[in-house]
Design brief:
Layout lengths: L5 H9 L11 H18 L3 H10 L11 H25 L3 H21 L7 H18 L1
Keywords: Membrane, Transmembrane, Transmembrane helix
Protein name: HPP family protein
């Protein structure tokens, strides 16, 4: 009887390189959008503000090769989601229990909205990660 190693198959998908539909210059555009915020924050002496501003630049990850109307909807939904996530984190960041509840609510809403608008990957990942990161910054600052 042959014994299979299920872990080998799980890690195989992590190391697999797939074709992408994005243009070759997209990684450079994403690095420019996110890196420019970080550099401006560093050179003005406020690296925390630069890091926070670079989170808003993550909306560039949702720029796809879809038709123009669909691209505008995706970017608008992601921008509003980031603003809403930041507002909720500022409001509920005073207590670790309320922050945990807010993370759960934001993750649920991000999943529901990204599924409704059929937003391609990274879909929920960036919005829920953003919310957790903002809550952590808010709690460590106090």
């Amino acid at each position: 009887m042959k014994v299979r190693n299920p872990l080998h198959h799980q890690f195989q998908y992590l190391l697999e390189i797939k074709e992408t539909e994005r243009k070759w210059h997209f990684p450079f555009l994403a690095a420019l959008c996110i890196g420019s915020c970080l550099f401006i924050g560093y050179f003005t002496g406020k690296p925390n503000y630069g890091a926070l501003a670079s989170l808003g630049a993550l909306t560039i990850l949702y720029f796809t090769s879809a038709p123009m109307a669909q691209r505008m909807i995706h970017l608008a939904v992601c921008a509003v989601g980031i603003i809403f996530s930041f507002a909720v984190s500022s409001f509920f960041g005073f207590n670790i229990y309320f922050a945990s509840l807010a993370v759960a609510v934001i993750s649920f809403l991000a999943h529901f909205i990204s599924s409704y608008f059929k937003i391609p990957p990274p879909a929920i990942f960036s919005l829920s990660w953003l919310r957790r990161w903002q809550a952590r910054i808010r709690l460590t600052r106090n």
